[in-house]
Amino acid sequence: MTNRPPTDSWLDEIPARIGALDAAHLRRRRRAVEPAGGALLRVDGRDMLAFCSNDYLGLASHPEMAEAACEGARRFGVGAGASPLVSGHSTANEALEEELAAFVGLPRALYFYAGYATNIGIVPALVGDGDAIFSDALNHACLIDGARLSRARIHRFTHADLADLAQQLAASPARRKLVISDAVFSMDGDVADIPALLALCERHDALLLLDDAHGFGVCGPQGRGSLAAVGLNGACASRRVLYMATLGKAAGVAGAFVAGPDDLVEWLLQKTRSYIFATAAPALLACALRSSLRLIEQCDGRRAQLQRLIARLRQGLQPVLARSGWRLGHSDTPIQPLLIGGNAEALAVMEGLRGQGIWVPAIRPPTVPEGTARLRIALSAAHTEAHIDRLVQALDRLAPDTAQPPGA
Questions:
Q1: Are 334 and 306 in contact (CB under 8 A)?
Q2: All residues at 6 or more sequence positions from 128 whose CB lies less than 8 Å from its CB, including other chains
Q3: DSSP string, 319-360
Q4: Residues near 276 by Cβ (< 8 Å), separated by ≥ 6?
Q5: Which of these is catalytic: 186, 226, 274, 324?
Q6: Number of structural domains, the chain?
C-alpha cells in the first residue's frame, strides 16, 4: 500500500486566510527604503518625508557613529562568532555594558542583540509556574509574549489604572510577583506613573520591570531615560526595579539592555535563554553604541527641538481635529497618535499622504485595540518646522468635514 498525501490539507487554507486579512484591511506590506538625508527616506525609489522612524534624535546616520562602527569592524571583524557565555562577549561589549550602567545610574547592565529577545527572555527568567505577573493592558507584544512563555499566572490590569493594579496585587496569593509596564507606551505615547508603580511594588513585595524603549535618549536629564526623569536612578535607585531599554530607536543603532541590581542582573545572565543560547551582538555595534552614548549626552539641543516640534504639531492639528472627528492622543513624547477609527479609513488617509510624498504608517489591530486604527506620527529632531507644517496641511486636505453646521 502506498502512502498518499491527504486531499485536504490545512496548508491549502493559507491563501484563503491571507485573503481574510485583505478583506479586513489587516495585511501588512514591507517597503524597501534607504536614507535620503535628514527626515527623508527613499521608499521604493521615491523620496518621501517620513514620520515613521523611531530615530527620535536623528542619530542613525551620524558620521561619528558610522566611523566608530567601521573602526570596530576593522578591529573585531563583523561577527561575534559565539554566544556571550562562550567567546562572543567582546571587550567592546564589556565596555558598553559598563558605560550603559553608568549612563542610566544603575549598578550593572546586560547587553542583548535585540529588544524583543530581551523581554521574551528575562520575564521567564524571573518568574514561572506558581508566580504572578501583573501586566498593563497596553504593554508591547514582547512583554506580553515574555509573560506567556513564563507560565506564571498573568493578571492584566486596565491601562494606567493604579487602583485596578493595587486590587489585583492585594488579591494575589503568589509569593513572587512581577509588575511589567512600558515606561513610554509605543502606540499612545503616554508615560507610566513610575513612582506610583514602584510604591505599589514596595507595598506588595513585587518587582517592577520597566520597558523604556521609547524613553531612553529622549526622557530625563541628558536623555538618561524615564527612571532618571523621576529621580529613581543613582543613589535613589531601588532594588525593586529592573530597567530595560532598546538601542535601535533614539540611540540609532541596534540591540537592547537591561540594568538593575548586581544580583538580579547576574541571575538574568545565568538564566535568560535568549541570552545564553544566541550568538552575541557583533562588537562593531557596541563600538557604534559607545559613540552614541556620548552623543546622546550632548543632545539637549535636539531634545529641545523635539519639544518645539511636538508643540507645533499639536497646535497645528487643532482645526483639523475640530471638524474631522479624528482624535489626537494625549502625548508629550515624539509619539503622536492620530486616531482615525476604522482600518479602511486609516489606510485611506495613509495612502492619501503617500500621494503627497509623506509617509506616516497606519497602525491597525492587533497592534492597537479594535476601533482605534490610527496614524502613528513619529517625530524626530531631524524634522523641521516646515516639515510639520507640510504634514498638517496635507492632513487638512484629507480630513472629512464632520462638523455640524450652526443650529443643526
A1: yes
A2: 150, 151, 152
A3: HHHHHH--EE---SSSEEEEEEESHHHHHHHHHHHHHTTEE-
A4: 83, 84, 85
A5: 186
A6: 2
* 227: helix, strand or coil: helix
pLDDT in tens, 199-232: 999 999 999 999 999 999 999 999 999 999 999 9
State how far the Cα of 280 lies from the Cα of 137, in Å rounded to an integer: 32
Band (pLDDT 50/70/90 cuts) for residue 3 is low
Confidence (pLDDT) at 2: 59
Mean pLDDT of the chain: 95
Same domain, 291 and 190: yes
Q: Which of 214, 291, 324, 387 is catalytic?
A: 214
Does the annotation mark 214 as catalytic?
yes
Whether residue 362 is found in the same domain as residue 383: yes
Cell of 59: 542619530
- The answer, yes or no, to whether the previous bond of 366 is cis (omega within 30 of 0) is yes
pLDDT in the model for residue 402: 75
Q: Given 249, 324, 380, 387, which residue is catalytic?
A: 249
Identify the domain boundary among 268, 297, 326.
297
User: Which three three-digit cell numbers place residue 208?
Assistant: 517592577
pLDDT of 408 above 50: no
